[in-house]
Structures are given as structure tokens and as C-alpha cells.
Design goal:
By secondary structure, the protein is α/β, with parallel strands linked by helices. Helices cover 31% and strands 25% of the residues. The protein binds zinc ion.
Length: 390
């Protein structure tokens, strides 16, 4: 895109973004960040509601005083437990996290400040808008917290729709990917306990080996995707840890493994859950052991509502952001839970720049975003708000 035609982010916004990057806070601990967000909104004359302690989420309500639709805009605020690398893909970064072992390596500092920049622009044009804009600042996205922000939104009467943006290192700055349907994966976490019977390593026939059973469960699990899910669907089952035994010559009584499923279709998610349960029970029976999977942290895919997707594309074109092709993100987002309240939409704005070395994957220690994505996010959001409330 032609950045000369894009209004740059305000100096205050750029300064605050750097400040948040230097002082990142972990999920559920965004006290300083939330205080800065609240102060910024209040200075704009926007009413702020904060989640009861220890919650850190907050919302701001911009009521134009004229009847109309209600649109929620959402940003997350938390950083990751990652030690930031002093370099990006090409050179030394200009500034770094000062909070050892914690860093904004998913770009949530851009989301927070992009939404504050948006709030400033919308507050300035309040007299030309109708309806209500609700700014939702979510705490603890990375840890699946954040239900307090949805509770605040519901308390304020909910919304007709919710709009969000995630910056994306896969795409160049100045571009946006707007997908039909699912744009992030659903996820469910499993824990499998395998019970056998201990025995001396020399006499396995006198026991029931839970390690051998777990190994067979793992291998059979790997064939669920390849043999039982339509190859046109994208889905993953990954066991990520397995623990059992304490020495070299004794078969233990039990062991466990943990992992997660990922999917873009809710029914595929339910199928993976059922097929893994079946695999665990069947393989355990064949081994003479007992095994059971327990499940937690179900997060559904973020699904873009067609009417919002259309409006977002029109908004991107209107402000000159490059609409490019992209793919759904095989990561999961608590943002999906907003769909219990109202229709949802999420855009992916590019933040990579090969010349300056921005483009390392999110959640990696070399991640850095091109700062101009702040202006892109604000322009896209403001245009979307104007069109939605019109
Ligand atoms: Zn993220």
C-alpha cells in the first residue's frame, strides 16, 4: 500500500506502544497496562468499566447520544513468558522488554495501542456517528482467561457485532487478509491416564505394561487424521508430553500423556474428541490395561460472519490497504468465545518487513512487527466502525 496516503499513528500512540513493549505483563497480570488503557480512555471522555479484582479486563463505552447499532471492538493485552532476543531476523532491535523472561512476542501491544488510537479518532468524530462503540480490552488471552471482558460486555447490554484484528508476521505490512468462515483453529486439550500393573523389567508377563500401551495409543492416535478425517479438512492431533516410570528395571503402574487437537470445523472437533476416546479405550483393552482421556480448555474456531467480512473488505479498499490472499491460522483464540454474545469478525493485518528484518514467527523470540501496522489497524477499524454504524 501507499503509506504516504495513510494517516500515521499519533506520536502518543507510538510512544505508548514502545512503553508497553518495554514493560510487558503476563496473562492475568496486566495491571500497569490496564491502568494506562483506562487513563487513556478517560482522558478521551470515554466511560470505563473494569472487571472486579483480580480480573484485569476493562471496557470503554463511547455513546454518541444518538440511537443506533452497538459495535464492540476487541483487543488483547497480555505478553508471553519468553525471553526476547535482542535481534530480529536481520538486525538488532531498537528497544527490548525490560521485564526479564516476559515479552510481547505475539503483538498484543499493537492490538492494545491500535485500539486506543482508534478510540482517539472515533472520539474526535463522535458528533458524526450514531449508536455506541464499546472498546473491549481483554486480559489473559494466551492463558484462556478473559471471560471477565465478555461478562462486562454482556452487563452493558452486549453488542450487535464484534470486530477484532490480529497482526500477522506471515504477511507484509500494509496488507490485510480477510477470510470467509473460520480464520483461527479450534483447540481442545486432552490428558490420558494409562493404568497397568507394575512388575520387574525382566518379567513383563507378570505385570501389564502401561508404557507399551501408551506408545501404542500414541501411534494409533497418529493414524486418526490420516485415515479417519476427510483429507480436504485441516486438523491436527498432537500428543506433546508423555511421562511414566522412575527407573530402568521396573515397569511402572501407570503413566500419562497430554496434547491437543486443532480443527477449523466444530463437527471435526467433536469427531476428533470421540475418535481419540475410542482409540484410547480400544488400545488399552487390547493391552489389558485401563486408559481414559479427560478433556479441558475447549476453544472453538473464530468464524467470520459473512456480512461483517464483506464490510471489512469494503473498508480495507476504501482506505487503500492491500487485500491479499491468506490462510486460516492454525492457532487458537479466546476471541472465539465472543460468538456466544454476537456475530464475530477478525482481520489479519501484515506486520512483516523483509528489509528491516521484521517477520519472525509469532511466539518466537525474534518476533518484531513493523510499527506502521498501528496506523493500518486504526485506519481499518475506524472505517469499519463508520460503515457499520452508518
Ligand atoms: Zn495473539
Amino acid at each position: 500500500m501507499d503509506f504516504a496516503k495513510l494517516a500515521p499513528a499519533s506520536a502518543e500512540a507510538l510512544e505508548l506502544r514502545r512503553d508497553l513493549h518495554i514493560h510487558p505483563e503476563l496473562s492475568g497480570k496486566e495491571e500497569r497496562t490496564a491502568n494506562l488503557v483506562a487513563a487513556w480512555l478517560e482522558k478521551l471522555g470515554i466511560k470505563v468499566m473494569r472487571a472486579p479484582a483480580p480480573g484485569r479486563s476493562l471496557i470503554g463505552v463511547l455513546d454518541t447520544g444518538r440511537a443506533g447499532k452497538r459495535l464492540a471492538l476487541r483487543a488483547d493485552m497480555d505478553a508471553l513468558p519468553i525471553r526476547e532476543n535482542a535481534c530480529n531476523l536481520k538486525r538488532e532491535k531498537g528497544f527490548l522488554s525490560a521485564n526479564e523472561g516476559v515479552a510481547h512476542m505475539c503483538g498484543h501491544d499493537f492490538h492494545t495501542v491500535g485500539l486506543l488510537e482508534t478510540a482517539g479518532r472515533l472520539a474526535a468524530m463522535k458528533d458524526s456517528l450514531s449508536g455506541t462503540v464499546i472498546f473491549c480490552f481483554e486480559s489473559g488471552e494466551e492463558m484462556g482467561l478473559g471471560d471477565d471482558v465478555r461478562a462486562l460486555l454482556a452487563e452493558q447490554g452486549g453488542a450487535d457485532a464484534v470486530f477484532s484484528i490480529h497482526v500477522q508476521a506471515d504477511y507484509p505490512v500494509g496488507s490485510v487478509v480477510i477470510l470467509d468462515g473460520s480464520c483461527t483453529a479450534g483447540c481442545e486439550t486432552f490428558h490420558i491416564d494409562v493404568k497397568g500393573k507394575s512388575s520387574h523389567g525382566a518379567t513383563p508377563h507378570l505385570g501389564l505394561d502401561p508404557l507399551n500401551c501408551a506408545a501404542q495409543i500414541l501411534i494409533t492416535t497418529n493414524s486418526i487424521i490420516s485415515r479417519r478425517v476427510n483429507s480436504r479438512e485441516a486438523a491436527v492431533i498432537t500428543p506433546c508430553q508423555i511421562h511414566g516410570g522412575s527407573t530402568w528395571n521396573r515397569i511402572p503402574d501407570d503413566c500419562f500423556m497430554e496434547g491437543s487437537t486443532r480443527f477449523f470445523d466444530k463437527q471435526i472437533g467433536r469427531d476428533l474428541h470421540a475418535m481419540l476416546d475410542q482409540t484410547v479405550a480400544g488400545v488399552a483393552a487390547a493391552c489389558g490395561c485401563e486408559a481414559k482421556a479427560s478433556w479441558r480448555n475447549l476453544t472453538l474456531p473464530v468464524v467470520n460472519a459473512p456480512e461483517l467480512t464483506q464490510l471489512a473488505r469494503e473498508s480495507a479498499r476504501a482506505v487503500g490497504i492491500d487485500l491479499i490472499a491468506g490462510q486460516p491460522w492454525m492457532a487458537s483464540e479466546t476471541y472465539a468465545r465472543f460468538s456466544e454474545i454476537c456475530p464475530t469478525f477478525m482481520a489479519f493485518t501484515g506486520c512483516a518487513n523483509a528489509e528491516t528484518g521484521c517477520g519472525a514467527p509469532q511466539h518466537s523470540d525474534r518476533f518484531e512487527a513493523d510499527e506502521r501496522v498501528l496506523a493500518v489497524n486504526a485506519a481499518l477499524t475506524v472505517e469499519f466502525v463508520k460503515r457499520f454504524l452508518a
